[in-house]
Specification:
about 300 residues; alpha+beta; Aminopeptidase; Alpha-Beta Plaits; five-stranded mixed β-sheet; four-stranded antiparallel β-sheet; 7 helices
């Protein structure tokens, strides 16, 4: 049977598997049920399966009939800490956790490839199927991908193939970028220190919340002057924490966000611009502010 025909036969089963993962999403390094479901299906193919790599990672290896290149196929398994607002039968059953980035799709696709190749193995070489934890990385926290690499995962690998689902493409379409598909990311944390005061006497304080709000506005204006038309870059502020009472001038504020670009020169320029914005707003608002960078990719 041709590999295409095998894939057609598996499509219904894989669709249900993906919907099961979607209904039971798990956060970074907590993908216990997901890893178990993946491992069980891989073991059912007769593959040698390893679990617990980088805490909750799973991998399986399929040897070819002869010598050849070692190809690694990689998927991620973790979900995001956000609500699922869909009204479908397979909507998330775990409150506040959703597969909003498509990792349930990625896992199912690589698992489907494993099932097809287990039925019709390559004539030479070997394929390793990797299901990594913790692709989503909150500021300053451990990368699941790096944790997998640190176990020696790539020591004898010749080629690594990854994928990302893309809703803009029609179902059944595979898109391949001729150059770079995804930008590199750097994460920042900005902490603003002001002086608390009662809201009835705001002049006695230095408003960290107001200063941080100004930083957010200025950061979102950076691309208009720091990046020329045609440049590929993005700036995002994803979290903002400040204040504990409506009657207090907030003494502290904290922001986290990212810059993304495929151009290392532009990345350096944007980092400098972020620092310049923070310093300028801090002077104008008479507060102190620091910028910290982590999770460079």
């Amino acid at each position: 049977m041709r590999r295409d025909d095998i894939g057609v036969q598996l499509s219904g089963s894989l669709r249900e598997f993906r919907r099961d993962l979607h209904r039971h999403p798990e956060l970074r390094f907590q993908e216990v049920r997901t890893a178990q479901r993946v491992a069980e299906r891989l073991q059912g193919l007769g593959l040698e399966v390893e679990t617990g790599r980088a805490k909750t990672g799973v991998l399986a290896r399929l040897p070819g009939a002869g010598r050849g290149p070692h190809v690694l196929l990689r998927a991620d398994m973790d979900a995001l800490p956000t609500d699922d607002l869909k009204s479908v039968s397979y909507a998330s059953a775990n409150e506040g956790i959703t597969h909003a980035c498509g990792h349930d799709v990625h896992t199912t696709v690589v698992l489907g490839v494993a099932e097809v190749l287990a039925e019709r193995p390559a004539s030479a070489g070997a394929v390793t199927f990797v299901f990594q934890p913790a692709e989503e990385i909150p500021f300053g926290e451990e990368s699941g991908g790096q944790a997998m690499v640190d176990t020696g995962l790539l020591d004898d690998v010749d080629v690594v193939l990854g994928l990302h689902c893309w809703p803009a493409l029609q179902a059944g379409t595979i898109g391949v970028d001729s150059e770079i598909a995804m930008a590199a990311k750097s994460a920042f944390r900005i902490v603003v220190h002001g002086t608390g005061a009662h809201a009835a006497t705001p002049s006695k304080g230095r408003d960290a919340l107001l200063a941080a709000s100004s930083i957010v506005v200025h950061l979102n204006q950076l691309l208009g002057r720091e990046v020329d038309p045609g440049g590929r870059a993005a700036v995002n502020v994803g979290t903002f924490a400040s204040g504990r009472s409506q009657s207090i001038v907030a003494p502290t504020a904290e922001l986290t966000g990212t810059i993304r670009t495929a151009d290392p020169v532009l990345a350096k320029r944007l980092r400098q611009a972020v620092s310049r914005v923070v310093s300028g707003v801090a002077v104008a608002a008479d507060v102190e502010a620091t910028v910290e960078w982590k999770n460079d990719m």
